[in-house]
Amino acid sequence: MYCDLTSEPRSAWTLFMSERTPGSGVFKTVPLYEDKPINEDGPQWNVYRLSLSKMKQLRSRSTHWRVTCSFQLDGLVYRDFVRAKIIDFDPLTLKGASICKRVEYINVRGHSCSECDVAWWQDDVMLHHDSSKSAVCEFVSSSGAVQSEDNFGYYDVANPNFRCTESGRESTTNYWFGSYLE
After folding, report:
1. Full-prediction pTM beyond 0.90?
2. Quick check: 91 and 124 in contact, CB under 8 A?
């Protein structure tokens, strides 16, 4: 397990899933509410996921979750990033399509908002946001999107301008649970 104690001041984060994207597709059709541990005892940025029971245990000790892009290459970058409070949006229980959920902050290709509602999908596929959908919820990031563009997971259609699927790099999508220290 990779723990990050330095990227955000007064916070601690634990990686619970990471995948080389696009290309790997290992978790494409495996929602977070399904059990599919890989490399659980030896984390690898290219393919790693805790068991569902360990994810639930980690979630129970956390207040937030976030998704970073290519953390192993760049550290924390707020472009192409999302962070939410678990109380507002639990990624392990969301089931459905185009469900509006509150996030603390999201940025997709430079489009961002804070404390806003964002459309998410996780229905027999990995959790993701489709930025090509116009104004399904409060957050709109369709400018610069490719048709049916997937962000933060699934990646049936990837945009080379999105950092998690950037062309010419060893891009990854990284999921974390964490808390802010008071």
Report:
1. yes
2. no
Listing DSSP states for 132-152 in one string gives TS-SSSS----TTPPTT-EES
The alpha-carbon radius of gyration of the chain (Å, integer) is: 15
Distances (CA, A) of 25 to 165, 166, 172: 12, 15, 11
Q: Say if residue 91 is preceded by a cis peptide, omega within 30 of 0.
A: no
d(CA 59, CA 174): 15
Task: Look up the domain containing 123 and give its range.
Answer: 3-180
Q: What is the pLDDT along the chain (182 residues), one digit of tens a residue?
A: 667 767 788 889 999 999 999 878 899 999 999 999 999 999 899 999 999 999 999 999 999 999 999 999 999 999 999 999 999 999 999 999 999 999 999 999 999 999 999 999 999 999 999 988 766 788 878 788 888 899 999 999 999 999 999 977 899 999 999 998 87
Please give the Cα distance from 56 to 105 (Å, whole number). 23
Q: How many angstroms separate the CA atoms of 3 and 71, rounded? A: 12
Number of domains in the chain: 1
